[in-house]
Amino acid sequence: MSLKSYTAPASGTILIPVDFVSSAPELTYTNNIIVGAVTLTGGLVVSPSGTPTTGQRVVVTWNASVTPSGNTITIFGETVPDELAAKNFVAECVYGGAAWVVNILPDFAGTGIIGSHRLASDSVTTTSIADNSVTLAKMYELATGSVIFGNASNRPTALSVADSTIVIGDSSTGLVSVAVSGDATLTKAGALTIATSAVTTAKIADDAVTSAKLDDDSNRTQVVIPTSFETAGEIGVLEYKICFPCTIEAIHGTVTKPFTSTGTHIFKDDTGTVLTGSQIDMSNALTLGNIVSTTPTANNTFVAGDVIKIETSVSGAVGGRSTIVLCMLKS
Hints:
The protein has one helix and 26 strands. It is an all-beta fold. The strands form eight sheets. A five-stranded mixed beta sheet has the order 1-3-6-10-11, with no helix packed on it. Strands 18, 20, 23, 24 and 26 form a five-stranded antiparallel beta sheet that branches. It has a four-stranded mixed beta sheet with strand order 2-5-8-9, with no helix packed on it. Strand 16 and strand 17 (192-194) form a beta hairpin. It is rod-shaped, with a radius of gyration of 52 Å. It starts with a strand and ends with a strand. The mean pLDDT is 89.
């Protein structure tokens, strides 16, 4: 028989006979195989038994699946790498006259023979790494909130970025993490706050403040228009050019000379449409200085260049004067 089979125990020693001069040389096998599946509870030693002959060759085929669990496997004095314990490999043992020389050959697929602990320090060079093959998972752990950048020595280094800070270039160090300060502050939620009174006149471009940026009171203005009902020739349609976009919010009429009969003012837009609710009637019962007011509710919006029309009329005899005040909100 040319092959002897052994089952791997959880711990202990497997003795392989190597003595040809024993009384039973047929018990000595050149080819041996170790099988089984086990988790070690102690060291497993495969050891020669008897006196070998110089040049004698013993082959141990490892066909077992063993989990070392921190224990050691040795074959004829050679330690088996942990990564091979659950793989197929061949241990070729040759007696040199004073000791056994053991060559452990990887499994038939040629994998698993080189573990990380068997690589020499700095042995993996740049040329040994394929382009685009180093993934994030293969990189060393990086502290939360840190970024990698090239420092002043042209070496990659980590920068810890604190809450509510920004990363900005620094010629002496490469990058720094600093808080936004001065006229504005920044929260880690991304909210930027401009400091009170930080926007000065010098920081505003000429012609950059539009009417929309002003509050309503700053955008309000008034236009004063005198009207006369003294003669028939002064009564009719008066037209006034609007210089800027606006909305007429209110109309006030003041009696500057009492009326002989009722004087009526009707206000129309550029197309001749009456401003809804804009009519002002000044009766002969009003005395000097009396004010009649109204609030237009529609058709009271104008653009620059439009014309506002005031249509005047009397119910009887002519006579009287007024001053019209248009209260306007710039658009």
